[in-house]
Specification:
Number of helices: 7
Structural class: alpha/beta
CATH topology of the largest domain: FAD/NAD(P)-binding domain
Order of helices and strands: HEHEEEHEHEHEEEEHH
Radius of gyration: 20 Å
Number of domains: 3
Helix content: 25-40%
Number of strands: 10
CATH class of the largest domain: Alpha Beta
CATH architecture of the largest domain: 3-Layer(bba) Sandwich
């Protein structure tokens, strides 16, 4: 596809429109079942949405106690579950296992010395992947969640070069990823680099799980992380009332409830406008 640009454009457009059609079709893709207030269900849904994978969400009612109050989430519960298109059922799968089952990730070939390894698939990592792969360099991108990074959660980006009317973060990420794929870049999604060290004149990178591969050059584009509040048991409420983005998923969970936006930067302002617009 890198050598035959005209044919590559036709194939790329056909695949993009095919994927959009599948996502828009009712009843397509995998079926994810679980409790609406389960943080693990939110994590799986966000992973599928961010990777543009067709899916359906089935929210199950939680059993009530004799006093009439709903039972809290049980960490040992088999939910959420994911039913694959071939009928197989995955019980409370990890994101890594789910990515492998769905074929979202491409594992590095340990026998190959890659020209460029890019850690992180935010806007900077995606740009590096496009530029490196388009020059014929053997390129691999390592990303823990999905292409787009923190920018991928933005409802609209208006200060990015080339989009005078703005574009959603996921739209920007999807275009950049498809562009990099067209030039031959590989994407190891749901993987993290845990160590990097010099090795016989190149760089040896080890992924979580123990898989190692080598690259002549490494681009670190790991981006930024959200600041967290220093409060007791704070992590217990993440994805269960405390969220780091204001997308349609979070808006659905907050429907009819009071919302507090903590922070006053660009992201906080965007979140406030988004939530106010759907109120």
């Amino acid at each position: 596809m890198r050598d035959e640009g005209d044919i590559a454009n036709l194939i790329t457009q056909a695949l993009v429109w095919r994927r959009l059609g599948i996502i828009g079709e009712i009843g397509s893709g995998v079926i994810v079942s679980g409790y609406a207030d389960d943080a693990e269900l939110m994590r799986i849904e966000r992973f599928l949405v961010r990777n543009s994978y067709p899916h359906q969400i089935v929210e199950l009612p939680r059993e009530s106690s004799e006093s009439g109050t709903e039972q809290p989430p049980d960490p040992s519960s088999a939910l959420p579950s994911v039913r694959l298109t071939n009928g197989r059922l995955l019980l409370r799968p990890t994101i890594t296992d789910l990515a492998d089952e769905l074929g979202i990730t491409e594992m590095p070939d340990v026998s190959v010395i890659y020209d460029v390894a890019i850690v992180g698939a935010g806007p900077a990592g995606l740009a590096a992947a496009v530029y490196a792969a388009s020059e014929g360099l053997q390129t691999i991108v390592i990303e823990a969640i999905a292409a787009g990074g923190q920018a991928g959660t933005s409802s609209k980006i208006e200060n990015y070069l080339g989009f005078p009317t703005g574009i959603s973060g996921q739209g920007l990420a999807t275009r950049a990823q498809v562009q990099a794929l067209k030039f031959g870049a590989l994407f190891a999604i749901s993987r993290e680099v845990v160590s990097a060290a010099p090795f016989e004149g190149v760089h040896k990178l080890t992924l979580a799980g123990g898989i190692s591969f080598c690259a002549r050059a490494v681009v670190i584009a790991s981006g930024a992380q959200y600041r967290r509040l220093s409060l007791p048991d704070y992590s217990h409420f993440e994805n269960r009332g405390v969220y780091y983005a204001a997308t349609a998923m979070e808006a659905h969970l907050c429907d009819g409830r009071e919302v507090v936006v903590v922070g006053g930067g660009n992201s906080a302002g965007q979140a406030a406008m988004f939530l106010s617009g759907i109120a």
